[in-house]
Amino acid sequence: MEDCIFCKIIKGEIPSTKVYEDEEILAFKDINPVAPVHILVIPKKHINSLAEIEAEDEILIGKIYTIINKIAIQEGIIDKGFRVVVNCGEDGGQEVKHLHFHLLGGKKLGIKICI
Ligand code: 5GP
Ligand code: ZN
């Protein structure tokens, strides 16, 4: 996806502070953090949103959660806890149309579910 910000970050065309990378997954610090730890975990495969994952993506999505735990250990928040948020579509408030998982932590987080 040529005009996708996160694909550009994957390709190194836009700089980011990477915290994890392998052949399928990239994690980097959110540019506008809302918590002391705010990391975006993304598949390198361009998927528009959670609404567009397919059966062939099931292993990849499962792996993302394993990596999230690995990053939570790395960031020192595994024991105190953290939150994972996926915004999907217009009503879900998704701004960047490349599937991403927000890993939030490092403080006692506020409202659990925003309606
Ligand atoms: P969404 O609202 O789509 O769930 O979240 C998109 C997130 O991407 C936002 O938290 C925003 O701060 C972050 N973001 C947008 N552009 C960039 C960028 O160029 N670099 C980084 N590191 N984060 C970005
Ligand atoms: Zn993309």
Description:
This protein has 115 residues and is α+β, with helices and mostly antiparallel strands. It contains 2 helices and 5 strands. The model has no long low-confidence stretch (mean pLDDT 96). The protein has helices spanning 5-11, 58-74, and strands at 18-21, 25-29, 37-43, 82-85, 101-105. A 5-stranded antiparallel sheet has the order 1-2-3-5-4, covered by helices on one side. The protein is globular and about 35 Å long. The structure holds guanosine-5'-monophosphate and zinc ion (ZN). Zinc ion (ZN) is lined by residues 1, 4, 6-7, 46, 98. Residues 5, 14, 16, 28-32, 40, 87, 93-96 line the site of guanosine-5'-monophosphate (5GP).
Helical fraction:
10-25%
Structural class: alpha+beta
- Fraction of residues in β-strands: 15-25%
Bound molecules: guanosine-5'-monophosphate, zinc ion
Shape: globular
Total beta strands: 5
The average pLDDT is 96
Distance between the termini: 31 Å
The whole-angstrom Rg is 14 Å
What is the topology, as strand order, of the major beta sheet? Answer: 1-2-3-5-4
Taking pLDDT < 50 over at least 5 consecutive residues as the criterion, the unreliable ranges are: none
Elements, N to C (H/E): HEEEHEE
Tally of helical segments: 2
Report the biggest beta sheet as strand number plus sense, adding barrel if it closes: 5 strands, antiparallel
